Amino acid sequence: MSENQTDRRHFHRIIMHRPVYLDCPSGNQVADLLDISLKGALIHIRDTWEPQIGNEADVRINLGDEGEDFLIRMHVRVAHVLDQQVGLEMISMDLDSATTLRRLVELNLADPVLLERELEQLTTQ
Fold first, then answer.
1. How large is the C-alpha radius of gyration of the chain?
2. Single pTM value for the model
3. CATH for 3-124?
4. Residue 36 in contact with residue 101, Cβ under 8 Å?
């Protein structure tokens, strides 16, 4: 990734490896989460799914261990596709998911000022 692309990022990414379940107009898909932020996620597709930029989907990600449910549900748009990596831009999410994601970011940033800056950036876009 070029330095220019890194500079344009307004949201910190949290590296995570979890299954991602997508409900797409073309059918259900399973992918692997690579990272997540307040604005979206980067996934690695497993199958022959060929996402197109602009396609929308509903996404479920369980952040909990076996027996625990810490679900994040979002409605997303495919922002970019590079080989088997797909960038998903978050369009909307429910309040419980937003709370869970906020807590995840908060724990990983370890700086309340950075978290507040990202939340402010999210609400002004």
1. 14
2. 0.77
3. 2.40.10.220
4. yes
